[in-house]
Amino acid sequence: MLNFLVIVSIIILFSYYEILLTLFRLLAPGRAFETTEGFAHRAVRHIFRLMHFYCGVDLEYENLSGIDLPERFLLVANHQSLMDIPVCIALFPRRMLRFVAKWELRVGIPFVSFILRTQGHALVRRNGEATQAMRSIRRYARRCRRENTCPVIFPEGTRSPDGEVGVFHTAGVRKILEETALPLVVAVLDGGWKVANMEGIARNLNGARFRIHVLRVTPTLSAKKEVLDAVSRAREEIATALAALRVNKSELTKKPPNGGSLRKSN
Question: What residues are paired with 77 via a beta bridge?
Fold first, then answer.
């Protein structure tokens, strides 16, 4: 029941933000870019504060690469649920992220659909022609370069229903890097697959933890083979890191033989 009330509150809050942002875009179109960005971050932070207070939802970010993130980069990560988008926004608060998302998300989700339609994200038809998809991604990459934003792509192309890492497709990554030369940031995401639908939210939202670990920062790539090798390596690194995250979580929940408690080591 509590989870249901939280979901209703989130929908109402997102609808409220969308109404405010729509009015502002009509009254002050010249400041729409900055305002949309600020609204997106405030809304996401507000939502996660609400979820933490009522449901104990936590966010975890860690940069394991040992390298500070550059001002602009292409973020490549696995994909588990729609939650991946707001989690990335929340955990990269000083970066303006722009996502490659499926066309269907342009409507139906208060505020989120509005942001995806109006903020310069790429909405790609999964069952459309490949050439049309690449044209959309090319325009998106050029806009990211022009507006100094960071593109984000999930090379699996669809959400993983069980959280396991699927096949990585390279065409979108190559097209983005052809249009805007950027360092490649590889990250593993976990936690979203458990709340990918209403049943998952009802069962698993309480105490949920959404995690992003940055695994590697690669200098700007140019040659096709370099990009292919980097994406292949990224898939292997993400799968390995995801398995390690789940082993560590499992170990933390076990009871030791003496009846004491296990504590996470630093």
Answer: 187
